[in-house]
């Protein structure tokens, strides 16, 4: 068609019937999205002369000025056309005159162009300009817009694809009229006066427009110049060669139109009658200059809920010669009926040439539409993404009836621009949506799923449609079949839905029967409904919103409940006269302000969350399942009446500091159960909770059949009273789980003090809500005790014993004079005792320095010695502690015949010492963690004597018994740990005494070497026995609750042991001796108890 028109017209078009004139009009230039000037709009007021001089004898002058609202709306309509139509190369803006009139109408038309060389053809000047085949005359308009006294809307301009105000949509009216000026205009006339109502005698003019050339009659025939037209009420006599419209089945067709319709209909329907099925109302004397797709803006129907053109109508503009990238504005359209389609056509941004989509990139066109379903009883699976971010973009618009739209899990439908609509269902009945994929409308005023017939673009006072509703001139009329039922039968949602203004909005004209929110659904944004209509029995037509029905394998809701359903919704649900919420299965968390007709929790389902429910007085809030406020702790307010059935249960969480609460501001009819689930906290013995703390009502009827409580605790008990609950604990609540008497003492003390020790709340809470078998408590009692300090005390005593042993193992002077000695020593042991004691491991490293003197001829030598050491103690599980001990000691000693190979010998020593200690304990049980720490300065005192007798073995050896007695005194002052207030300890001072006897045998042997050197070896064996009590008593209390005191009895020394030792030394010269020794203890409480030293003696 484009080629034929251009070939026919060439560049020799002549303008007809305009008289040039110059007046003081106002000018605005309309730009397209590329910034090109598309139109020059000249606005004429009453003083600006004629804006339409096509009738030079009677030019049209504006009787009144266009107001600012009108200028904005007209500008918006022109901008829309500027975006749709591609401008030709070398284009200068077409001139459009705008004026007013007093008629109750609006129109726009272009000057008619003719070419004497091509008779029987005409085209509008505006169309020719936009096709690049006419240069125009700046002194004459290419088109004229006239605005009359219509009741036009004054709302702000917006890009909605539905009329919104109820008045004639100003923008849509001008958009419609401009389409006529662009070429949707027929060349048919009759011989009647303009104001006649007589039956006409229509015929085609001799010059046919491109639109006329695309028309076909009932038999599919094209028109010819001057051809008469037959219709059911026309006066033309029958002529077999006439344009036959007696069945009023005319249509427009072309290659682009056929591509869009895809066989759904022969072409775009047109009508010669005012009302297609009612010939008694006569002929529409616009003669097929309107399209008659259902509710179309370009129709002459009394009800139109479009504000733009459908894809087929845009295709018609392509067929009459305009250059349009149709795919920039439409992804795909389904005009057929009973179609099953897996639609793989997506909607995205276009490439620079407008020839292909750019998958994954958002389309930015104004009022773009990804998928349009016009037909009926179709099942469409949208298998490709639809991505728009332009103003007024819509993902899917549905206008037929009984269609099923399926959105698979992998599909994204996004309408992210201003006034975007993910899904828009705008007409029909009994539609079904199965959404498993993602639908979003997160831009300004965006709605994820909109159910709205919209208003009438021609004014809703003329005619208004909705579910079970057709009103004309304010009167209810017979409802056509296409409106007899709910707009939506079922919306099965298991995917993602979001909207900035609302996730779901139901308009006041659209009845939605069921919204089924299924497992996997994620909703962001409010759910709102303005619907408020009643059936013939005056019962409200309700929308049932269910949470937790079970879905089948295809994502469709079944009648069964889904016990595995889980969802949290943080939006508001508002529709007090329409929305009835049902919690059908699983667990649903609602958090927001909800205005509902009613709400019901079914048996086996759970509703929780923080919400306020305002109910319609006609119904109530009914609980037959479980109702639990909060997502942890929370509140529910019910403004209306509440009914709990026999199977209903209210489950509230509570602790000593906070609790759930339900407040019924109305009548509460009670039955079923009220159950308190006590949460981890510190509960004083005898703590109580009253019923009115968790449930209140303005008025009650009946009472709960059962007041129950759950308390997951190995130590606490809860009992229901007449109006609440009481928590208690037995005296052995903790001690019963102790692994030892020492641990039991801690448990008994804690239980005794549990009525008033808030400072230990964290410890009580952790134990009270630990594992049911009490194993955590057994661990806790050990760690909370002072056992680690008992292990440290035992280690300190053993260290002092080790120091004394080092001096006993040092050889005396065999000559008169001075001897100095230095020896490094180390030892380790692992103490493994019974369940009431504390296993631990110790490592000690140190150095001893000394000097002694023997007078000439004397058997005695006297000396002094000092030592420094560091000890590390690791306390085994369950106590988990580490201690570092640094010691210093200073002492005196005396030896008797220490050198003697035969006869009596002896040693006496006395030493005092100081200890700098640090302790780091780890407490970790249940969910309680702490690391108490301490440091102190302790003191030690040691006194020891030893005697022995040697028998000579040859010249260089000896053997004989050895008897020793060692006394130790250790003092650690009272201390207070740092760390968490709930577990740090305050320990009383500790004074420990130990007396150990040793009886054994010593064997020595010397070997003379060359150069006056001598090798000396020794071996000893001895039985060691503790003579005083081997146990210590440690008293302690919790630092922040000193009334919670306890004591423990722990081992402090081995009761006995078999000691084995050996040494070897080299007398290097008369003055110098080097050596080393090793010792171990067997058959005692300690394991792996070994020590050794490296020594050096120097005579001077």
In round numbers, the mean pLDDT is 92
The chain-level structural class is mainly beta
Overall body shape: elongated
Spans of at least 5 consecutive residues whose pLDDT stays below 50 are 1-21
Instruction: Bin the helical content.
Output: 10-25%
InterPro entries: Autotransporte_beta, Autotransporte_beta_dom_sf, Pectin_lyase_fold/virulence
Keywords: Signal
Protein name: Autotransporter domain-containing protein
Domain Autotransporter: 810-1100
Description of the structure:
The structure is a single chain. With 1100 residues, the protein is mainly beta. Among the domains are: 367-728; 735-781, no CATH class; 794-1099, Beta Barrel (Lipocalin), CATH 2.40.128. The protein is built from eleven helices and 79 strands. Strands 62-63-64-65-66-69-70-73-74-77-78-79 form a twelve-stranded antiparallel beta barrel. The longest helix is centred in the last third of the chain and has 22 residues, at 787-808. The radius of gyration is 51 Å and the shape is elongated. 51% of the residues are buried. Mean pLDDT is 92; it is low at 1-21.
């Amino acid at each position: 068609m484009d080629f034929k028109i251009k070939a026919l017209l060439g560049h020799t078009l002549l303008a007809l019937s305009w008289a040039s004139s110059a007046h003081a009009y106002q000018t605005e230039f309309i730009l397209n999205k590329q910034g090109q000037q598309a139109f020059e709009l000249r606005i004429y007021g009453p003083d600006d002369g004629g804006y339409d001089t096509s009738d030079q004898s009677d030019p049209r002058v504006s009787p009144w000025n266009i107001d600012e609202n009108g200028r904005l709306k007209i500008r918006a309509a022109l901008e829309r056309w500027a975006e749709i139509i591609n401008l030709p190369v070398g284009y200068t803006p077409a001139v459009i005159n705008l004026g007013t009139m007093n008629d109750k109408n609006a129109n726009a038309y272009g000057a008619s162009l003719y070419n004497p060389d091509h008779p029987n053809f005409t085209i509008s000047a505006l169309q020719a300009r936009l096709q690049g085949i006419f240069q125009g005359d700046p002194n004459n308009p290419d088109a004229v817009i006239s605005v009359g006294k219509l009741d036009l809307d004054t709302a702000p301009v917006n890009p909605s694809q539905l009329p919104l105000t109820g008045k004639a949509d100003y923008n849509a009216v001008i958009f419609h009229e401009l389409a006529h000026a662009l070429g949707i205009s027929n060349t048919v006339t009759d011989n009647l006066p303009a104001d006649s109502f007589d039956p006409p005698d229509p015929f085609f003019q001799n010059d046919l427009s491109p639109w006329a050339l695309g028309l076909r009659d009932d038999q599919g025939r094209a028109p010819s110049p001057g051809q008469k037209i037959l219709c059911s009420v026309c006066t033309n006599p029958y002529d077999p060669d006439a344009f036959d419209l007696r069945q009023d089945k005319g249509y427009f067709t072309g290659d682009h139109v056929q591509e869009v319709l895809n066989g759904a209909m022969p072409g775009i329907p047109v009508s010669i009658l005012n009302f297609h099925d009612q010939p008694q109302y006569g002929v529409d004397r616009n003669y097929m200059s309107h399209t008659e797709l259902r509710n179309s803006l370009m129709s002459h129907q009394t009800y139109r809920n479009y504000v733009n053109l459908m894809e087929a109508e845009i295709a018609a503009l392509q067929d009459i010669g305009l250059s349009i990238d149709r795919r920039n504005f439409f992804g795909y359209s389904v005009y057929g009926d009973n179609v099953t389609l897996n639609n793989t056509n997506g909607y995205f941004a276009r490439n620079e040439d407008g020839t292909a989509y750019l998958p994954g990139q958002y389309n930015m066109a104004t009022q773009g539409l990804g998928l349009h379903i016009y037909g009926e009883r179709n099942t469409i699976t949208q298998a490709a993404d639809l991505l728009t971010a332009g103003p007024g973009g819509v993902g899917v618009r549905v206008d037929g009836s009984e269609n099923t739209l399926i959105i698979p899990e992998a599909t994204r439908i996004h309408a992210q621009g201003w006034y975007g609509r993910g899904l828009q269902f705008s007409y029909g009945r009994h539609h079904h949506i199965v959404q498993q994929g993602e639908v979003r409308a997160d831009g300004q005023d965006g709605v994820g799923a909109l159910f709205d017939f919209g208003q009438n673009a021609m004014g809703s006072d003329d005619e208004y449609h909705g579910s079970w509703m057709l009103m004309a001139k304010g009167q209810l009329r017979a409802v056509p079949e296409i409106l007899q039922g709910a707009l939506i039968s079922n919306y099965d949602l298991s995917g993602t839905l979001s909207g900035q203004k609302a996730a779901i909005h139901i308009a006041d004209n659209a009845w939605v029967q069921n919204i089924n929110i299924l497992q996997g659904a994620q909703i962001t944004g409010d759910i709102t409904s303005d619907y408020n209509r009643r059936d013939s029995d005056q019962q409200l037509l309700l929308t049932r919103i269910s949470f937790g029905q079970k879905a089948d394998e295809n994502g469709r809701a079944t009648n069964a409940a889904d016990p595995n359903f889980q969802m949290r919704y943080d939006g508001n649900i508002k529709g007090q006269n329409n929305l009835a919420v049902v919690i059908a299965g699983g667990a649903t968390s609602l958090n927001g302000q909800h205005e509902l007709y009613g709400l019901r929790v079914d048996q086996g389902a759970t509703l929780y969350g923080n919400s306020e429910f305002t109910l319609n007085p006609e119904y109530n809030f009914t609980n037959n399942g479980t109702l639990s406020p909060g997502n942890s702790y929370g509140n529910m307010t019910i403004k209306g009446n509440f009914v709990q059935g026999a199977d209903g249960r209210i489950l509230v969480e509570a602790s000593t500091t906070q609790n759930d609460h339900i407040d019924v501001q109305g009548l509460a009819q009670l039955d079923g159960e009220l159950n308190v689930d006590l949460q981890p906290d510190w509960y004083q013995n005898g703590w109580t909770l009253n019923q009115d703390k968790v449930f209140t009502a303005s008025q009650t009827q009946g009472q709960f059949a059962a007041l129950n409580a759950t308390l997951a605790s190995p130590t606490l008990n809860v009992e229901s009273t007449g109006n609440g609950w009481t928590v208690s604990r037995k005296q052995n609540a903790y001690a019963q789980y102790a692994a030892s008497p020492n641990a039991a003492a801690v448990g008994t003390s804690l239980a005794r003090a549990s009525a008033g020790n808030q400072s230990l709340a964290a410890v009580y809470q952790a134990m009270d809500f630990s594992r049911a078998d009490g194993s955590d408590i057994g661990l806790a009692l050990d760690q909370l005790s002072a056992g680690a300090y008992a292990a440290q005390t035992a280690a300190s005593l053993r260290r002092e014993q080790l120091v004394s042993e080092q001096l006993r193992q040092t050889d005396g002077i065999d000559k008169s004079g001075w001897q100095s000695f230095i020896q490094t020593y180390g030892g380790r042991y692992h103490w493994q005792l019974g369940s009431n004691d504390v296993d631990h491991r110790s490592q000690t490293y140190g150095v001893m320095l000394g000097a002694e003197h023997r007078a000439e001829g004397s058997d005695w030598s006297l000396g002094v010695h000092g030592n420094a050491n560091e000890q590390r103690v690791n306390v085994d599980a369950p106590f988990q502690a580490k201690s570092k001990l640094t010691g210093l000691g200073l002492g005196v000693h005396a030896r008797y015949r220490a050198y003697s190979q035969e006869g009596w010998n002896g040693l006496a020593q006395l030493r005092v010492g100081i200890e700098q200690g640090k302790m780091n304990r780890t407490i970790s049980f249940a969910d309680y963690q702490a690391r108490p720490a301490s440091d102190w300065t302790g003191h030690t005192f040691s006194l020891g004597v030893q005697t022995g007798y040697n028998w000579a073995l040859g010249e260089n050896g000896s053997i004989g018994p050895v008897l020793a007695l060692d006394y130790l005194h250790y003092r650690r002052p009272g201390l207070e740990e740092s760390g968490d207030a709930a577990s740090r300890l305050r320990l009383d001072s500790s004074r420990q005494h130990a007396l150990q006897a040793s009886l054994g045998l010593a064997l020595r042997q010397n070997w003379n070497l060359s150069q006056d050197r001598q090798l000396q070896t020794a071996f000893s064996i001895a039985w060691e026995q503790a003579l005083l009590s081997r146990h210590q008593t440690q008293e302690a209390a919790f630092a922040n609750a000193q009334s919670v005191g306890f004591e423990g009895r722990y081992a402090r020394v081995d009761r006995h042991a078999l000691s084995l030792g050996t040494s070897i030394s080299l007398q290097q010269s008369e003055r110098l001796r080097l050596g080393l020794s090793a010792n171990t203890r067997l058959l005692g409480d300690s394991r792996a108890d070994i020590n050794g030293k490296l020594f050096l003696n120097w005579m001077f």
